[in-house]
Structure formats: C-alpha cells, structure tokens
Request: fold
Amino acid sequence: MPEGLANRLKERRTELGLTQAELAELVGVTRKTVNTIENRVFVPSTILALKLARALDRPVEALFSISPD
Amino acid sequence: MSAFVIGLLVGLGAVLAIAVVVKLRQRNMPMSVAEKADYLSTRRARMLPALAVIFVSQQATFFATISSPAPHSADGAKISAWLALSIILLFALSTKWFWFERKEVRDLLDDENTRANRNDGMRWGFLFSMAAAIAVYALTIFDTAVTARDAVHIVMTAGIAVALIRWGMLERRAHRDA
Reply:
C-alpha cells in the first residue's frame, strides 16, 4: 500500500499566528517550500522537518506522521 | 568577423540586456531577502516555460537551414545564437540562476523544494534526450542522412526544453495555494 507523509503544519502555524512567509523565514526556505509541505506535494528532508519542529515548538512526530495515501 | 561569432555575441548580448532590464525594474522595490527570493522564484516559475518556447521556436531556423541546399551566412549566426542560448540555459539549469543577486538571495532561491523540482526536471530532460537519441539512431537505420551536428542539435533541444518545461510546471504548482 502506498504511504504518504501527513502533517499538522498548517494547524500549528495558524495556532501560533504565523504566515507561511514568516515560518519560511524562520527555517531558511522560501514560502513556496512551506506551501508545498503543507499541501503534501513535497516531502521535506529530515533536517528541514527538524527545523520546522523547532520553529513551531513541537516534537517532529507531533507534526509529521505516516499515512496511507 | 564570422557569422558564428556575431551570432554568439548577439545571444550573449540579449541575455545581458534582459539581466539589466530585470535589475533596473527591481531597483525601486525595497524588499527583504525572503521577499526578494519569493518574488524572483515566482518570476522564474513564469520564465521557465517561456524560455522553453523561445528555445524550441529557434528550431524552425535550424531545420530551415539544414534543408536549404545553399545556406546563407546569416544562418550561421542564427545557429551560433542558438548554441549560446543552449549553453546559457544549461548553465542556468545546473546553477542557482540570478547570478547578479546577493548570495543570501541566491541561496534561498535554491532551497530544498527548488532543488527537488530542478532535479526532477533534469531527470525528465535526460530521459527525453535519450529518447531523442534513440529516435535519431532509428532514423539512420532507414537510410535517412543525419549529420553529427543535426543529431547533437536534436538531442540537446529535446533535453533542455523538456527539463525547462518540467521544472517550470513543478515550480508553478509549488507556488499555487491549496
């Protein structure tokens, strides 16, 4: 069965009152990259996932999980 | 000065002129590094398919030239302009683009998602190059005369154009909101 990477990035970002651009700036990527991760178009590297988790003050497994596509 | 050198200079001149116009347009737009990278990234996404169209449209010149029994000297200039554009596009495909921007902006323009999209574009470009090479090879089996220059031209065009289109498509999709 094919698997995808689900994420709760948008929920957490909105909770903190951050825009995509602000989050992107915090982790050193463009807004486009944050947008594609939130939309499940792009699967981030471990490094970027950890940076996002740190920026959003959540453990990485609370933000990302494996889900059937 | 030979027609080929003139063509090369015209090609390089056109690229420099575009770079200067882009720079002048940005002068009155004060932006942070992130804003600028986002702005340029959007522009690049729009530019990629347009560049592919310009690049492929030059092929009309090439095929008109090779089918002509007595090529004109201007044809040499056009072919070398095509060569200059090919080299510039190959360089653009394999670097971070926007060579006249600050390092921070260029680094941000080559973030993880961009690299993934570009790599996918390059993969498609490679596969289409190989498909074009196989097609050219098949043509020679049926006694169709294909010179080395024609073959290189066809293979390069297929590879570069497809890589640009694929990368452009992925970048445009990435910019689109859900």
In short: Residues 3-175 of chain B form one domain. Chain B is about 80% helix and 0% strand. The CA atoms of residues 18 and 24 of chain B lie 10 Å apart. Chain B touches chain A at residues 32, 34-35, 37-38, 41, 108-109, 111-114, 116, 171, 173-175, 177-178 (CB under 8 Å).
